[in-house]
Write a structure and sequence with these properties.
The complex is a heterodimer of chains A (364) and B (177). Chain A is built from five helices and twelve strands. With 364 residues, chain A is of the alpha+beta class. Chain A has a domain of 176 residues: Beta Barrel (Thrombin, subunit H), CATH 2.40.10.340. In chain A, a hairpin with a 5-residue loop joins strand 7 and strand 8. The chains are: A alpha+beta (364), B mainly alpha (177). At the A-B interface, helix 2 and helix 3 of A face helix 1, helix 3, helix 4 and helix 5 of B.
């Protein structure tokens, strides 16, 4: 027997194992009773581990979901930040476009109201020199621009075309030292020559100390330089003081304020009277309404003779009479035409200087 | 000489630790397989077709090549699996006892290191295990026939295909590579 079990040990164990399990099965089936202890142990052990696994899986899943959620939040945050940056840029762009549209509208309104024929142009570049007072505009000779033409904005004078190229032009600003233009003050009609000094302010030269001028008084183009039509605003006098021979007058150019992007080139200038009211600076940079009585403005030059207070006034009145005697009108002759003979002695001054547009004096 | 004795002592300690780890692995792996069969099909139902406890028993039998140990190992795993089932305890126990025994017997005669042989053996013993289980149910419990030959063959192929890489993983895990 011992030999048999030793020789067939494996089969014996197999037989015993199978038999034992068969008996266990038979007991369970026959008695209809379970082996609760084994099941409780097994189930308890496995379900505990399964619960741990479930909790671990749930925790891992939760962490994973939250991580993915955080990743999504981070991505969404980055996307929103990018959108915010884009919207900020877009808002800046739209704000600039709005300002540009306002300036363009102001230019359009000014173009419609001014009798001069103008051409809108956009500044496309500055001069190659640091602090240059020269700019380039995108209108050139093909659009009819010529050298010497006035460049203005609704706010005032900007400069003068120095050179016209086929598609662009070079404009020298009125702050450039080479710039000069004839100006006249609004209230006292004091005339002078505007000159650039290379800084933000310009000087008005050749104003006698005896001439009346107040700080804050506006200067307008006089038209005497035959570049700028008469009546364009230049800017207010910010400094007025007596000098040795001439007044020291500094003017703040109004045409260079509010940023300079679009300008008007005066192709054909028409003289206008100097307005009686100070130009109001509005959002659209609209010029004030023209004066109701045009005779009032036309009488201004002749009115100067009514109060000949300075030598310049008297000299001016003399030249005016010489011109009247010889049938010459100042400011209308073309370059190269014969000037009046200033050696002739004009007729003696009358007690009251009649206005050019006024009624003729009564016969003696 | 002193250094040599230290080396011998260290080597013995390492072998003992390795033996303990191997025993723990032989206990932990079938438990993990049963847990897998209990828990994972809840998440992925298709994985319920895998009979991982049987594959673990087959791996033990094919690598150990000891009949008694293999049949006892199969009996233990089967009984634990029975304890978690709704059937009387012993059904899976008998099926896996016989599977382990015959698998160990087959490992003596065949080159079980060959993946093809492993696949064929896994396929065969899966089919044998399922058929034996069905036969026991029919004989002892008189339950209606639920055995599908076609399904058993297909699932046998599936488990055989899974067994080949699984045996590689288990061999490395148990230091039998």
């Amino acid at each position: 027997m011992e030999l048999f079990t030793h020789r067939y040990r494996n089969l014996s164990v197999l037989f015993a194992a199978v038999l034992g399990q068969l008996l266990l099965l038979g007991y369970q089936i026959r008695s209809r009773e379970d082996v609760p202890l084994v099941r409780v142990w097994a189930v308890t052990a496995v379900t505990e581990v399964a619960s741990l696994l479930e909790a671990a899986a749930e925790g891992a899943g939760s962490i994973l979901r939250h991580y993915l959620l955080l990743v999504g939040v981070r991505q969404e945050n980055e996307r929103l930040r990018r959108e915010l940056d884009e919207l900020k840029l877009e808002a800046l762009h739209l704000r600039a476009e709005l300002a540009r549209a306002e300036r363009a509208e102001a230019l359009r309104l000014f173009q419609a109201r001014t009798p001069s024929r103008t051409l809108a142009a956009r500044i496309i570049g500055a001069g190659p020199v640091l602090n240059s007072k020269v700019v380039f505009v995108d209108a050139g000779s093909r659009q009819g621009v010529e050298a010497g033409m006035a460049v203005i904005t609704p706010d005032g004078v900007v400069g003068r075309v120095r050179a016209a190229y086929p598609t662009s032009s070079q404009v020298v600003l009125l702050t450039d030292p080479s710039f000069a233009a004839g100006v006249i003050s609004q209230r006292h009609h004091t005339q002078g020559t505007l000159k650039g000094k290379g800084v933000s302010l310009c000087v008005v030269d050749f104003i006698q100390n005896e001439d009346k001028l107040e700080e804050g008084e506006w200067f307008y183009t006089s038209g005497d330089d035959r570049v700028f039509p008469r009546g364009l605003p230049v800017g207010p006098a910010v400094v007025v003081r007596r000098g040795k021979l001439l007044k020291e007058v500094l003017v703040a150019p109004s045409g260079l304020g509010n940023g300079l992007e679009e300008v008007l080139i005066v192709l054909e200038g028409v003289h206008q009277p100097v307005p009686a009211q100070t130009p109001a600076v509005t959002t659209l940079h609209l010029l004030p309404a023209p004066p109701a009585d045009p005779a009032q403005a036309g009488a201004a030059p002749s009115g100067l003779g009514a109060s000949l207070e300075t030598d310049a006034d008297r000299l001016r009145e003399r030249y005016r009479r010489i011109g009247q005697m010889q049938g010459h009108t100042f400011g209308e002759g073309l370059p190269g035409s014969a000037p009046p003979d200033f050696t002739m002695e004009p007729a003696p001054a009358k007690p009251a200087i009649p206005d050019a547009s006024g009624p003729p004096p009564p016969a003696p | 000489m002193r250094v040599d004795s230290d080396l011998v002592t260290g080597g013995l300690r390492g072998r003992r630790a390795e033996a303990r780890l191997e025993k723990a692995t032989f206990v932990a792996v079938p438990l993990a397989a049963i847990l897998f069969q209990v828990y994972v099909p809840l998440l992925v139902p298709y994985l319920g077709y895998l009979e991982l406890p049987l594959l673990v028993v087959l791996f033990f039998a094919l690598t150990r090549r000891r009949l008694t140990a293999s049949l006892l190992y199969g009996a233990a795993v089967g009984l634990l699996q029975d304890a978690l089932s709704h059937n009387p305890i012993g059904m899976f126990g008998i099926a896996k006892t016989l599977s382990g025994y015959f698998a160990a017997a087959a490992s003596i005669r065949f080159d079980v290191e060959n993946p093809v042989v492993r696949f064929l053996l896994a396929f065969f013993f899966y089919f044998f295990h399922q058929f034996l289980y069905w036969a026991l149910i029919q004989a002892l419990l008189a339950q209606p026939p639920g055995f599908s030959l076609q399904q058993a063959l297909i699932l046998g192929l599936l488990n055989g295909a899974v067994a080949v890489p699984l045996f590689q993983v288990l061999a490395k895990l148990m230091g039998r590579g």
